[in-house]
């Protein structure tokens, strides 16, 4: 019997690593997807999850790019099979007060934390629908509901994720 395949964006971060472990423990095959340019962190991650070396693998993915998500997720599907579970855990912060926040700090956070959710979901939702099965879990933050000083960009992105998920 084929195990379901889960893909975790931000999969080599602290929360992402634990999500990968728990999915592997529950019997899933897991792809930890993250920026391939973080080669040192990728090596550390693979060491950290070595007990699950048959279940967890790494694939590079830039969630901030619609084209990269489409191309990379198609390649991952061709290589590993259909993705049944998507966990959007990729996220960054660029904390500063609104008065000091640059447009770049704003757009970097919105692009990764909110656009990344659209980019990955859009690339995978048709396949999930055609197969009649799919699960998408979007990891947000209480700051999307309550706000947080110095996190205007992050709070806005996480609030957007909440609206995206509810829609």
Q: Can you tell me about this structure?
A:
The protein has 167 residues and is of the alpha/beta class. The protein has a single domain, classed as Rossmann fold. It is built from 6 helices and 5 strands; from the N terminus they run E-H-E-H-E-H-E-H-E-H-H. It has helices at residues 14-25, 39-48, 66-80, 103-131, 143-146, 152-166, and strands at 5-9, 29-34, 56-60, 85-88, 135-138. Strands 3-2-1-4-5 form a 5-stranded parallel sheet, with helices on both faces. Helix 3 (66-80) runs parallel beside helix 4. The longest helix is centred in the last third of the chain and has 29 residues, at 103-131. The chain starts with a strand and ends with a helix.
Q: What is shown here, in short?
A:
Helix content is 51%, strand content 14%. The chain contains 6 helices and 5 strands.
Main sheet: which strands, in order across?
3-2-1-4-5
Q: What is the helix content?
A: 40-55%
Helices and strands: which structural class? alpha/beta
Q: How would a textbook summarize the main sheet?
A: 5 strands, parallel
- Number of separate structural domains: 1
Distance between the termini: 34 Å
Low-confidence stretches: none
Count of runs of 4 or more consecutive helical residues: 6
Radius of gyration: 16 Å
Superfamily at the CATH H level? NAD(P)-binding Rossmann-like Domain
CATH topology: the name is Rossmann fold
């Amino acid at each position: 019997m084929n195990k379901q395949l889960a893909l975790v964006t931000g999969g080599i971060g602290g929360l992402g690593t634990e999500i990968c472990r728990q999915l592997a423990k529950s019997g899933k095959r897991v792809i930890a997807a993250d920026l391939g340019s973080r080669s040192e962190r990728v090596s550390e991650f693979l060491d950290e999850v070595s007990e699950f070396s048959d279940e967890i693998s790494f694939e590079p993915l830039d969630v901030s790019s619609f084209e990269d998500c489409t191309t990379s997720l198609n390649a991952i599907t061709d290589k590993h099979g259909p993705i049944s579970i998507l966990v959007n855990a990729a996220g960054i912060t660029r904390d500063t007060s609104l008065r000091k926040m640059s447009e770049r700090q704003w757009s970097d956070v919105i692009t990764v934390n909110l656009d990344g959710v659209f980019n990955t979901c859009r690339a995978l939702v048709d396949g999930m629908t055609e197969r009649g099965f799919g699960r998408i879990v979007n990891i947000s933050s209480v700051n999307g509901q309550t706000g947080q000083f110095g996190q205007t960009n992050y709070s806005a992105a996480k609030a957007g994720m909440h609206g995206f998920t509810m829609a």
